[in-house]
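thought: fold this chain, then report.
action: predict
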Amino acid sequence: MGDGEILLPLSGGLDSRLLAAYLATTGDPSRIVAMTYALSPTSREVTLAREICRRLSIKRHIIHPTPRTLFKDQIQPFWDFFGGSVPPAHGHLHSFLKQYVGTRPPPLLVSGFFADAVAGFAAGPSDKAPALSDSGVFGRFQAGLEKLLVDSETSDTVINDLETVHGEWRQSELPVGFDEYIYLTIRQPKTFAPLLSLYRDCCPVAIPFADPDLARLYLSLPLGERRHKLVQRHLISARAPSVEGLGDVSSSVANATRRQRAQGSLRKWTSRACIALAILSGDSIRPTTPYWTEDLFGAMRKEARPALLATIKGLAAQGILSAGQAQRLRPKPRTSLDANYDVCLLGFYPLASSAIS
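observation:
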């Protein structure tokens, strides 16, 4: 890895924690610059990341303030680079790199990309018997098609494409379930591979979890070891036991220990309480959750709201959205899933603005 700075995004989660443990115990911790995103300096991610740095003797730790205008601010750069194929929800690292790189020799960015795909985030039984309609992916597609009032011809095309992928999965040798197959072969490559091109415009990037041999090793492990990223926990324990026992920021409540399940439940219900307060108060009460990643919901209800409504208006004016679809998309989001739909739509603001300028 040379002898320059190593820039490590550190959320305190299992993937970035494993990378921190490996880098700090294998090489020189003084080369590592850890960076944690934060809406608040008291966020759970910041607390965990600080303790991880302390225990691993990582002296340089940057807390990067993440404004609620982040997603709106990243619309144009993402449109210029991706043309709408990647939503600005992924703009946090890009916003940091644009500020950090250029004032010094480019660091080596060590990314945890693809860890979710190989380490068991979506792991399930690899039985090839279940029908497409029994998969979680199919249910989510159906829900999305219904929410967006997609016409029957387009819906049939989408389902036919999904059936093709389902057939490819049945013929594949990958020992994974269909939901995980989608994650490995479509979601990760089509979202994160393009993002890497954006980051490489700023600095060199290393992606350890994308190594083909490592991926094959992970996927060869028993499901019980991969599910809920148990293998990550084992590797952290072997490399740096002092950080293995710390809490987790996973949103899953199906974790390894009673303490981790309690923490997962706390995250889930704290976030839901904050969402409920925002909805019931008409956004006059906007508590910051202890987890910065949840703020996509709040930003889609307020800071990004004018741009989102302009996007809907412009796409409707161009006939890209029907009147019914525009009406369906106008209300403020009431769930995190609604907010995800909105931020994907927001990415098309530059296209829409040409119709209303």
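thought: worth noting. The chain has a mean pLDDT of 85.
final: tokens above.
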